[in-house]
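Hi V.,

Quick status before I head out on leave. The structure for the redesign project is tokenized and pasted below; the design run finished overnight.
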């Protein structure tokens, strides 16, 4: 595990807004508990090259200061319990992407 910034890239399609809202309401305290930051979201991402994944309509980006923080967030029992609401209300893909080490 390294201390390089780690990004989470989420592609999301909300199928049940009410169930997903329960997830959203509890999301930020758990993210902050693991030193995570919400970077941005976009409900109309533009694909400049290749095929746009048609099943998804939102992209979300998060960051963590380390792999350990990111993995602890994901594995947190409180987060896993909360994520049941997301799973019931949305389809996602989630990718963990390592940032680049600082250049010296």
């Amino acid at each position: 595990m390294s201390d390089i910034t780690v990004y989470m890239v989420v592609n999301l399609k909300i199928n049940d807004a009410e169930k997903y809202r329960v997830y959203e309401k509890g999301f930020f305290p758990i993210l902050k508990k693991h030193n995570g930051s919400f970077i941005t979201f976009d409900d109309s991402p533009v694909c400049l090259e290749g095929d746009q994944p048609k099943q998804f309509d939102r992209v979300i980006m998060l960051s963590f200061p380390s792999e350990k923080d990111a993995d602890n967030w994901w594995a947190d029992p409180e987060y896993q319990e909360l994520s049941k609401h997301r799973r019931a209300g949305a389809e996602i893909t989630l990718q963990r992407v390592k940032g680049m080490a600082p250049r010296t």
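Above is the designed sequence. The chain has one domain: 6-47+54-98.

G. will cover questions while I'm gone.

Best,
W.
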